[in-house]
Specification:
The structure is a homodimer. Helix content of chain A is about 25%, strand content about 20%. Chain A is α/β, with parallel strands linked by helices. In chain A, a hairpin with a 2-residue loop joins β8 and β9. At the A-B interface, α7 of A face α7 of B. Chains A, B: It is an enzyme of class 3 (hydrolase).
């Protein structure tokens, strides 16, 4: 049974890496002793080693070992043999590029079908959607496709931000960007605020954390979903 | 001789569409009676007709006629016959997608070589760079390439924003995103603040407007360029 945590961010303001979600992770990863870390998104341009070290330190506090996928000779085998998987944030274009380059999409799909627990934060959450088309990231590399893992039947907009009524900046708001997306695409989008995450168990998808999330559907007014809502009911065909 | 105005934004806070730059445009377009408008970026999801109407109204105040490229049977011929060209803002991915789909990149290149004056705002400025890799836009469509017109030897980050020291938001700052870009790419990037533009005359590229612009080069500290600076000197090989 599919078992995912899809988080808006790794870090909330004023707190350490993954700190806000560690109690949840202790339970979520309770059957794993080692977590495979996928550092391909290279947050702030960190090297794979530097980035893996940050994940390693955070998980050491709940007695989990972390191995970077780049430490294996064969990344496909690393995924196939993983007890648990964590994909960190950074740049979604580069992350998706590396998923294709290393041909691990089929292996990730298989692992998740087999019930291997998966944690994503930010870019690592974007790739759980149908496409990466609602990332906020800069297109610093050209991936072979925008299609992603499709573990959930909608897309994620991570770090969702409400329009700032005091702003004098003329760049598009997040909501405007997502409405532009729906001119060209039918897949719904869930705007996840920092500190929110989705808990996926099989077909159940529940919103967790302290905030509401903003649901955008083509041709409809956006709506706010309360925390602890069973989100999957909004996507029944 | 190449003759371009490359503006960060069409509109500054508290003022009408193109209003801040109309005095400059009166002189820039003095030899044209009709301006070809390229509405492909579809700001806020507007239709081509709606968007063209907005440009038409602004240019009517300086006695210029505006024709939308979509009003022509053949967009390539529309570019070939244009007296002056204006590409508006919106979504850069969709704009670039349509440039390729309508195969007008060679025609735009030729027109600019022949001295046809070109105005770009926001997305319409991004495409003047070497690639569209420094857009802030959402990847709502998958264009066949990120390569753009290369009228200038660097990329543009339009609507450039300084980091906000009071922000509690954990998403990347603009500067962090551009630094991530430079891990993978060598082309320099100029962050153009809203109200700034570049005036290109042949090989000369001068920063205009009331603000400094922020120049990012691979492996170097970012630097602020003063307004009225001859920017091209920073890109001599």
């Amino acid at each position: 049974m599919k078992k995912l945590l899809i988080a808006s961010t790794s870090t909330v303001h004023g707190s350490g890496y993954l700190e806000y979600i560690l109690p949840t992770l202790t339970n979520f990863f309770k059957e794993a002793s080692t977590i495979l870390f996928i550092p391909y998104a290279r947050a702030s341009g960190k090297t794979y080693d530097e980035y893996t070290e940050i994940a390693r330190k955070a998980f050491a506090t709940i007695n989990k070992e972390v191995k970077g996928i780049h430490e294996f000779n064969n990344p496909k085998e690393a995924v196939q043999q993983a007890e648990a998987i964590f994909t960190g944030g950074g740049n979604t274009f580069e992350l998706v590029n590396q998923l294709y380059k290393n041909d691990i999409i089929p292996d990730l799909t298989k692992a998740i079908e087999n019930g291997i627990p998966y944690l994503g934060t930010s870019a690592g959450s974007n790739i759980c959607g149908v496409t990466m088309m609602n990332t906020n990231d800069m297109p610093i590399v050209y991936p072979p496709s925008f299609k992603t893992l499709g573990f959930i039947p909608f897309n994620i907009n991570a770090h969702y931000l409400d329009p700032n009524p005091d702003s004098t900046h003329m760049g598009e708001t997040r909501e405007t960007r997502i409405k532009e997306y729906h001119i060209f695409n039918g897949t719904p989008v869930l705007g996840l605020r920092e500190g929110s995450w989705l808990e996926v168990n099989g077909d159940s998808i529940v919103l967790r954390g302290n905030y509401t999330a903003r649901l955008f559907k083509q041709g409809k007014e956006a709506e706010e979903l309360e925390t602890n809502t069973e989100v999957s009911q909004y996507f029944l065909q």
